[in-house]
Specification:
The chain is mainly beta. It has a single domain (17-236), classed as Porin (Beta Barrel). It is 5% helix and 64% strand. It has one helix at residues 2-12; strands at 20-32, 35-41, 46-53, 55-56, 66-73, 78-85, 89-91, 96-103, 106-113, 118-123, 129-140, 148-159, 164-167, 170-171, 182-194, 197-214, 217-236. A hairpin with a 2-residue loop joins strand 8 (96-103) and strand 9 (106-113). The model is unreliable at 4-15 (pLDDT under 50).
Length: 237
């Protein structure tokens, strides 16, 4: 009787789902909302704020917008992943902005072209959002062979920007930097193409109050970005 009872117990217990790895690569585009740019150059007795600053993303101008991630699902519905998103921003310096603060030790508060003080401000080798994400997903249909999977993710991490800028006539020394905290939230859909190969599309939001080096100073700008991406994912069990 004990053996029979044990057999029934095993049959009634839910089977644990096999672990799964997912590798994803994608391209896309992003829209970064208008914002402000603050910069300080202590050697020049300068501390200025420019508003508004408009950013373009130019997703297919090298180096293009891209991303990739590696996920581990410890159950059918939940997992963790690491992700890199190569977001870019190009400031439009040919627009008018309110420029206020201190310039060469003198107070200033005027409307002028951004290029009158900032000739170039780009982060084109990437804001490079490096995040760890928690993922929840839902299969539409049999979970072992679902043709459509919905997923959502939230995450946070660091940025590794490489800025290119010319401020007050001085170019920065280019190189990768340790940037600011980034957060993100996203939702998307995966459609099975063949076996473990899926096409993916996703909308996501990212936010980082980025600080980068300029010549003899620093610059800070808040980047609120909406992304639309598409790519391929491969599921391994």
């Amino acid at each position: 009787m004990r053996r029979v009872a044990a057999c029934f117990t095993v049959l009634l217990l839910p089977r644990s789902a096999p672990a799964e790895w997912v590798v994803t690569g994608y391209l896309g585009a992003a829209h970064t909302a208008q914002t402000s740019l603050q910069f300080q150059v202590p050697d020049e007795s300068t501390n200025l704020t420019l508003h508004p600053i408009a950013y373009a993303d130019k997703p297919f101008t090298p180096a293009i917008y891209y991303g990739y991630r590696l996920a581990y699902f410890f159950s059918r519905r939940f997992g963790f992943e690491g992700e890199l998103t190569h977001l870019k921003v190009y400031a439009d310096t040919n627009r008018l902005a309110q420029i206020s603060g201190v310039l060469y030790g003198m107070p200033v508060n005027e409307t002028a072209l951004v290029s009158s003080v900032v000739e170039q401000f780009n982060i084109t080798h990437g804001v490079n959002l490096l995040t760890g994400n928690f993922i929840a997903r839902k299969a539409l249909g049999p979970e072992t062979a679902a043709r459509v999977v919905l997923d959502a993710r939230v995450g946070a991490g660091a940025t590794i920007p490489q800025p290119i800028n010319v401020v007050l006539g001085e170019p920065n020394v280019q190189g990768y930097q340790i940037g600011s905290l980034a957060i993100q939230a996203a939702g998307g859909v995966e459609i099975r193409l063949w076996r473990g190969l899926y096409a993916i599309t996703e909308a996501k939001y990212t936010r980082t109050n980025e600080t980068v080096n300029i010549f003899h100073g620093t610059a800070a700008t808040l980047l609120n970005s909406a992304h639309l991406i598409g790519g391929l994912a491969v599921h391994f069990r």
